[in-house]
Amino acid sequence: MTAYPRILTAGDSGLVVEFGAEIDPAVNRSVYGFTAAFEEVAVTGVTELVPTYRSVLIHFDPLQLPPQRLQTEVDSVLAQLGDAIAGTVRSAPLYRIPVAYGGEDGPDLERVAEHAGMDADRLIEIHSGGAYQVYMLGFLPGFPYLGGMDQSIACPRLETPRVKVPAGSVGIAESQTGVYPADSPGGWNLIGKTPVPLFDPAKDPPAAIEPGSFVQFVPTGPDEIGTIRAEISAGGYTIPVAEHST
Amino acid sequence: MLTIKTPGPLCTVQDSGRPGFQRFGVSTSGAVDQTALLLGNRLLGNDPNAPALEVTFGGFKAEFSARAAFAITGGDLTATLNGTEVSLYTVLRAGQGDQLAMSSPRSGLRAYLCISGGFDLPRVLGSAATYIPGVMGGLRGRALQAGDKLSSGEAAASPETGTVLDGITLPDWSQDITVRVIPGPQDEQFTAQGIDTFFGSEFTVSDRSDRQGIRFDGPEIEAGQGGYEIVSDAIATGSVQIPGDRRPIALLADRQTTGGYPKIGVVATVDLPLLAQAAPGTRVRFARMGVDEAVKALRTRAQEIERAVPVPPQLDSISVAIHGESYEVALPRKSVATGEDGRILAQVEVNGTLYTVSIREDA
Q1: Could you point out which of A150, A157, B306, B344 has its C-alpha 20 to 30 Å from the C-alpha of B223?
Q2: ipTM of the assembly?
């Protein structure tokens, strides 16, 4: 049995703090709990932290911050957090993303529903019913890895991936759901689309939803989508956000 | 002021990169050979982060439409100005209509065309580095094409033509290379035999390599029970991952920020420029290195780079004609051509009269 948390070497300029080996909501909470606590210490020589499913990679400049000293800083933050880290009730933003389900925006909706043995309305109800944990962003700029999809709506990937999936497409692949931040080739089953831009390199931060937060998809009719689109064009739209405690 | 005639296989604008946004899935990008970029900018008196062109493999032609001081660093891609071969790591000057070319590699793979003032392009998330998979930076987030025009920013210094860097040793890229690797973070996922194969065999750089990573051909690396998959985690520059085909891939500037293959080790930062210049076909061995040793080597290299100061061209003596007689005048071993009109360089006494030798720039 491996004991967690543990510290691993990632070259002379990287240190990994690992909290588990599984995709697990509690492990991921520890990752973001540690990230927040370590950032508060603001150690000189740390260039950036990259939290993922189960670990945090600390990038640092070893000429400014000797690896031994960084390790001491990490140990001290871990000791302060103690066993409480995974159990900590953490409040994070819950982003309510408007989605037009089905039709041209979600060409695979009917097929995914059929695969799940239910009608499309029921599938939409289940898909939009839960708050998804944003485990990490990766693969492409702004691409969120979401956890917590109801397994009853899981569906295998397309046998032949599409050459171009339009930005904003909401999809299901196996037991995961996600949303494409940019036009991209892809093999996910597309069930809907959001007009909200999720990644804009002209903004800082560039991603509309940050890792460690939560996302809920809100079924939205064509009129309202039109209104939102107009607000986005006019620069006056912000994603509705609520507090979410875990 | 510079028009691309042919970009070659891949020519992009790069700087020191775009750190700070990896948690949003944005790769750091930037020059694959950071040392070459840094030295080029240092030669020109530029900001160390000034954008340059990263020319890959050759096939590059461009035309200057205005006077410019520039330098070429990194790999030797047989660079010529108006057909005449030019020196690398040297301040050069081009005039309007001058043709710059880099035809094919003699050693190394990537050359950096640095220009006085740096190329003037908008910063995206703090950097002008081109990140093609994310369509950002550089010129509209893409590789340069024939017809693209680039201008330079305001120069902080006016570097003298012929200036070179003193006190720097450049790696020899024409040889087979040994790259030092620090084991981890997932070295425990491989069998003892797998680790031995990795550190004990010769690998060859595959032609399926790019700015995301270098693929190697060679023996298979054996994994243990965990196999060739992990729950995705973040990736440091130089990470060597072993995917399902069991051959190593060393991840470079445009690597994805996260990935699901186990990483047997990470290349020591000091050896990244070596890897950056490894052309397809280069034979590579991996040698085990400890973290402390790697930091020490990096510090030594950083100090060497810090000491590499630009040295203007030097002359020992010049001939001076006075009243029809020619005199050889010794010059102090320092700058002679600063461009400051009237500066006295030396003095010579002829028939009791003291003459001074000074600079006069004729327009």
Answers
A1: A157
A2: 0.92
